[in-house]
Predict the structure.
Amino acid sequence: MQRFLVLIVAIAICASVNAFAPRFAPRTVSTALSMSGEVAVTAAMVSALRAKMDAPMMECKKALTEAKGDMAKAEEIIRVKLGNKANKVGSRIAAEGLVVAMIDGGKGVLLEANCETDFVSKNPEFVAFSKACAQKVVNENPTDVSALSGLTIDGRTVEQTRTDLVGKIGENMSLRRFRRYETPNKLTSYLHGNRIGVIVEYTGDETAAKDVAMHIAAQKPLALTTKDVPQEKIDAERNIAVQKAAESGKPPEIVAKMVEGSVQKYLKEVSLLNQPFVKNDKITVEQMLKQANTDVKSYTLFVVGEGLEKKEDTFVAEVQAAAAKVAAAKAAAA
């Protein structure tokens, strides 16, 4: 009887092993190889590629599968795919973005970086990229945006980094412009949100200079003095004044005085030193600076997207465009 029980237990153990062996056998195979001998993509491989390339997880998995587990080849595939994505969106209008102001002693920069939407302008990676570019301008003094694009950030050029970011986020991005300072004078800056930025070069009191920077952001003067106003702006204003004065029916000599008066008024309105100071409109900016023993040497003002064409899509326009496509398809099928 005892021998019979032992035999029953032995049979049960064998049956149990046979039942579970097929289920767990594949797990004894190396994680690097599938049953067919092909390289299997593991979670660790995907994670490593993602950490290195900063690309979406599914893109990393697809690249590793295509590369049959070859990490170097997968990196190349990711770069090509992200580059192709960047090319597809490269023609889209990028009129949103941010302004970065950076000052390091007598060196400083004001830089505008653009993207397509206000949402992406706040994206941490886009912000970090823009600040890194501003730092490059401060440190390495590129002559223009093209030269900046050839500099390197973490072993990759600025242009390659931009392309990778476009591919990852899916929006067109660009470095539009920058103004670099290197001066024995002092520098201060003011940012209104991330859309308006000002740098002021000055001597004297920092508080007064900061107030001027805030004034510039609010009033947006065209130039420091009346002599610095661009001639094309003056000519355009004079042309408008001539047309208005001609309608008055007054004698030519009176018309000439009216035109000159209008032009002079305009020059005072658009030149910084002649504008009423925003914190005290009883005095001009020039008078405020004189009281503070401060002298503004120059300034730069950037407004995000200023002068760029902006896409004005509305829900109604989108519906109309969709309806037009449907109508065109019906007409083609008829």
In short: Residues 17-36, 85-91 have pLDDT under 50 and may be disordered. The domain at 2-89 is CATH 1.10.8.10 (Helicase, Ruva Protein; domain 3). The first strand starts at residue 96 and ends at 104.
